[in-house]
UniProtKB/TrEMBL annotation:
The keyword Membrane does not apply. CDD domains: BaFpgNei_N_1. Belongs to the FPG family. It comes from the Bacteria. This is Fpg/Nei family DNA glycosylase. PROSITE patterns: FPG_CAT (PS51068), ZF_FPG_2 (PS51066). Gene3D superfamilies: 1.10.8.50, MutM-like, N-terminal. SUPFAM superfamilies: Glucocorticoid receptor-like (DNA-binding domain), N-terminal domain of MutM-like DNA repair proteins, S13-like H2TH domain. Residues 254-288 form the FPG-type domain. Keywords: DNA damage, DNA repair, DNA-binding, Glycosidase, Hydrolase, Lyase, Metal-binding, Multifunctional enzyme, Zinc, Zinc-finger.
Amino acid sequence: MPEMPEVEGLTRFLGERAAGLTITKARVANIAALKTYDPPIDALVGARVVSASRHGKFVDLRLDAGAPDPAADHASAFAQTEIHLVFHLAKAGWLRWYETLPATVIRPGKTPIALRVGFDDGSGFDLTEAGTKKSLAVSVVRHPQDVPGVARLGPDPLQPAFTRDVFATLLAGRRTQIKGVLRDQSIIAGVGNAYSDEILHAARMSPYALAANLSPEEITRLYEAMRSTLTDAVNQASGRPPAELKDAKRRGMAVHGRRGEACPVCGDEVRSVFFADNSLEYCPTCQTGGKLLADRRLSRLLK
């Protein structure tokens, strides 16, 4: 699943590559991916990309959809014509960029492509989703907060306002395992399964530790691990084209996805706990005092 660092990399790439371009094509191939109807998807055609930004794991393309009213002041005129293409890649989605957009016709129901967007310089991108469970979401809205998932987001952990004390307040009284807290988008925006594993490993903390029971020293250690892990990952993602982001993510992982390998810190074997269609990874020596974690508690761990 793309998480904050990869989504930030995609956002920066789109901001640099697509800003100033005009959309000439917007074709939905998977109608279930389109979550809105007003404005219609056709409103994207003719709109100019102003900027790209990120909200948690959502990408937001800000668009100028028409000529401003000459009788209005600049700010209100742009507000009348501003729309946003907001998308969430879910677990198996990705953005495939083309310097020259393929001319092939996409056939709904027979392709992994959910949305194709083309620009006036001939470039463009597809939003694709692998597998049979389709969760990728595309919205065309007048304001990002019109997307329910964006409206529910907690604070971004890399924003300057997200201090250690803010973090401590979010944890206070939560008798929930810390792995689940880190993944809950309504508490902290942008962290998913992979980076929560990495953060907890860097903080030398069990994923089963209860948030409410953490000492002040443990909160500080976890806060610093979160900021440093995410900052390093964002730096690794920045400047890379979309095609390179997934491999860069995998190479940067210390424990996530590395079951059976040696922990890079202590050399112990990285272990997994399996649940549903996913897993978490941890190092027993670094994180749990050598104790192996049981699966029976996972039903309360992840939302």
